[in-house]
Amino acid sequence: MTWEAELEELRARVELVHGMGGPEGIERQRKRGKLTVRERIQLLADPGSFRQFGTLRGAAEYDENGALASFTPRGQVDGTALIDGRKIVFMAGDFTVRGGASDGHHGGLGEELSASQRALEWRLPYVRLIDAAGGSVRSFETLGRTYLPDANSFTHTDIALLDTVPVASVVLGAAAGIGALHASLAHWNVMVDGSSQVFPGGPPVVKAALGIDIDKEELGGAQIHTRRSGVVDNVAATEEDAIAQCRRFLSYLPSSVYELPPRLAPSDEADRRDPELASIIPRDPRRGYSARNLIRHVVDLDSFFEIAPDYGQARITGLARIDGYSVGVMANNPMHRGGATDVAAGSKALRLLQLCDAFHLPLIDLADEPGLMVGIESELAGIERAGARLVCAVVDSRMPWVTVVIRRLYGVGGQTHHRSSGMYRRYAWPSANWGSMHIAGGAAAAYRREIEESDDPESTRAAIEERLRRVTSPFRTAEATGQDIIDPRETRPLLVEFVHDAQRVLASQVGPPAMRFRP
Amino acid sequence: MIVQVRAEMPATVWKVLVAAGDSVLAGSELLVLESMKMEIPVESPCDGVVEAVHIAHGDALEERHLMIELRRVG
């Protein structure tokens, strides 16, 4: 063999890379109950499909004869893999190497493309497995100087990715600084309960800045971010679960905005008419129902993947399949704040609209909308501007959209379930009622003088409300506007028909989205 | 172990269905809230015994208000 010595060096160097941060670092990682970067990649990739690039990068020292004396791999593994047979690009932080601290930019002349640039140019989905500490002041000592924070060229790529390919961030450790940014610059993200956190600065930084003692879980754990801040969409019980959720999320999406989502062999009957749909809505308007059950009755069996289930719970959002085609789904949840759109629920709806528009998913909207959330808490959260942002997204979107009015459709919140342009269809169930505002409360405002001047204000108000209620039958609207009212059991067959028709329109919409995706 | 049941949303207390000392099963209804004109049942997160009830009919609650404390059983 002519090149035996070089081939032996290549083999030896790859072996050093596979050794990650060394036995001690790996042992510490395991003691934290965490997997190594290479174990994680095995979970992400279809068997045998992982191919690393930039493999030989690292920090080397040489002896006086120019022979390799020591080698530390880079704290990040970049590569490609297949997920359900489709290629993706990923970066994966390796905490066993210097705690995954970003070691600055060692490249320079002749440097190979980064993983993110490759994902952008190859038009492949981009996955981040984040387990890194962000920058460290140690790097100041190594450099012998500090540097100005800059919106470097990598950042441009990260933003361009959002309008080009699906981006998913899986948080598998404490993500601070740039790690926290990368956790958020994604179409979807997930974190592991108890072992991952997200913050611009961790507990020591909080202590220095605010004098407050707080542990990292209380500061930026899953309970904070998947339930209260909404910074992270989904929570996972384990690292295996987080990576499985990531694979599932990507399964609904095309490889890039230049393609349509893959269609799977339908797993369900297209003309399934579940009899429960005719009785799922209680006659008593004060009684709720399970909107998640409602979704399951109309989409393909076991196909619903919920996004951000614990945040903004008044709106349920997610991805599903209808006759094998990928769709976005949203439904008001009457069991939380009556299903009213508060700032959190509105931001979930907005993100789903952007996702559907970017990746050519028809939107299925099961509306039971009492309106934008009222009350001082909602005012302080900025409900009007949140509503305005949602209205903008509705108008700017262009993916095919079908709304089924299940029960209530009121006010400006109700308006956000309708688009007056493009392929849009609306059906209503016989249980539906609607208006620019609710009769209770609305009557008290509009007929105030009549009520106040009456001898018996209470019965006058009740009489006015009853009079108004008689005109709220959806059939009266249908007479005048042609609004189609359907047997609820027909919902799934009609949605199947809509999603088939939508493919023609979607085929003409491939390419960059009209509405840019914003996290 | 004490399990705290807190309001997940601003709401008014419509019906309180348990009292201190009652045994409850996971999933059984502890109380019914009213929010945005809807009745919202609140279910027990675990099997247990009601340790304390901190709310009464008609109370207006803020989000995360402590409503009931349970002593987990099993």
Outline the structure in words:
The complex is a heterodimer of chains A (about 525) and B (about 70). In chain A, strands 12, 13, 14, 15, 16, 17, 18 and 19 form an 8-stranded mixed β-sheet that branches. A 7-stranded mixed β-sheet of chain A has the order 1-4-5-6-7-9-11, with helices on both faces. Chain A is α/β, with parallel strands linked by helices and about 525 residues long. Chain A has 21 helices and 19 strands. Chain B is mostly beta strands. Helix content of chain B is about 0%, strand content about 55%. Chain B has strands spanning about 1-5, 10-15, 25, 30-35, 40-45, 50-55, 60, 65-70. Chain B has a 4-stranded antiparallel β-sheet, with no helix packed on it. In chain B, strands 5-4-2-7 form a 4-stranded antiparallel β-sheet, with no helix packed on it. In chain B, strand 4 and strand 5 (about 40-45) form a beta hairpin. Classes of the chains: A alpha/beta (about 525), B mainly beta (about 70). The interface of A and B includes residues 286, 288 and 438 of A.
* Morphology call of chain B: elongated
Tell me the major beta sheet of chain B. Answer: 4 strands, antiparallel
Structural class computed from helices and strand pairing of chain B: mainly beta
Global Rg of chain A:
27 Å
Which two chains share the most extensive interface? A-B, 19 and 12 residues
Quaternary organisation of the protein chains? heterodimer
Rounded mean pLDDT score of chain B: 94
- Percentage of residues in DSSP E strands of chain A: 15-25%
Number of strands of chain A: 19
